[in-house]
Every structure is written in C-alpha cells, then in structure tokens.
Amino acid sequence: MWNELVARWYVGDFFQPTDEARRYYEIKHRIVARLQPASICEIGVRAGYSAFAFLTAVPGAEYLGIDKGPADPNDHDAVAFTIHAQHILGAYNARMWPVDSQGLGALPKTSMERVFEFVHVDADHSYRGCRHDLEISLDAARWVLVDDFDVGPEIRKACSDVLLERPSVTAEYVPDGFRGNLLLTVK
Q1: Is there a contact between 61 and 75 (Cβ–Cβ < 8 Å)?
Q2: Domain that holds residue 88
C-alpha cells in the first residue's frame, strides 16, 4: 500500500511521505483491514491519502468523502487537493461531497440507503466542530476513527465528553507514533 500511495502523492504537498507518514497511513490501513467495513465515510479528506489507505484494505467498499474545501473556489490549495483525491481514488467506488460537515444534521446514506459502517473524523479540530462530527457519526456508524487524538486537546475533550454521555460506545487508543487515533465502537 505504501509504495502505491507514495507514487500517487500530490507533488505540491508540503506534507511529505516520511517514515512517520508511512506508519500513520499503514496503521489506518491495518485498522480498516481488521474491521472490513462495507462502507466508509470520511469527514475531512484533504488529498485523499487516508482514503487510499482505507480503500486498499477493502477495495470493494463504498466510500464517501466529505470536505468543505472545494466549496470555496478561492481556496486554490483545497480545490487542488480535492481534485487530487478524486484522481487517486478513481479506481474505487468513491465519491466526494463538497460540503461543510458542520451544516449536516446527519450523515448521508450509502447508495443502498444504508448507514456508513465506518467513519473517519478528521476535519474541524475545534471542540465544537469535532463534537458535532462525532455526534453525527456515532448516530449512524458502527466504528468511528478519530484522527489527531494526540495533538488536539480539544479533540480529546470532545471524545471524552461523548464517551461519558454514551455508555454504549467503547474506545480503543491506537498509537501511530505521529498524531494518534481513537477508535470508537458502538455496541
């Protein structure tokens, strides 16, 4: 997976394919390979690297990427990243939805009118934004993988508060030596 991802790396990206990045994406790939979800929704796509790691683990999964970036045509980097993500995901059952997740009352359904089984939360890193994305994800999905757990105190607080309020949700910390993940499972 890693060599294929590096070959698809966005040329103008300041985030380079380092050893830390390798471990980061390999962990994401392994998590999805273990869970084997039939459908994946990602809130915060950027250049599509996590999506590529997920879809190489479950190539037949349906994928929806939600990212507000392309909704602002003046944000040339966001538009370029989204175009790049669409390009590297072209071989998969993947589609992008250019909206801000903060305006959603619920996650959309899959093409088969089912809820997405797995959601990756990596967009708004504020407490309020992360909390909102967690709420709409946990209302629908079986698994929610929260990114940037080690580097975002507001993300950790949002996760902690949601876990206190939802006893049916369990958490598994998944270190990656870089930014950290928290895997939430709805019982």
Answers
A1: no
A2: 2-186
**To 10 degrees, what angle do helices 153-165 and 127-138 make?**
40
Spatial neighbors of 28 by CB under 8 A, at least 6 apart, are: 50, 53, 54, 120, 145, 176, 181
Give the CATH number, domain containing residue 16: 3.40.50.150
What was the pLDDT predicted at 73?
66
Q: Give the pair of three-digit tokens for residue 156.
A: 């950790």
> How many folded domains does the chain comprise?
1
Question: Residue 82 is encoded by which pair of tokens?
Answer: 């989204």
Residue 69's pLDDT is 77
CB 58 within 8 A of CB 40: yes
DSSP structure class, residue 184? E
Asked whether residue 144 carries a pLDDT value surpassing 70, the answer given is: yes
Strands (DSSP E) found in 76-122: 93-97, 118-121
CA-to-CA distance for 62 and 135, rounded, in angstroms?
A: 22
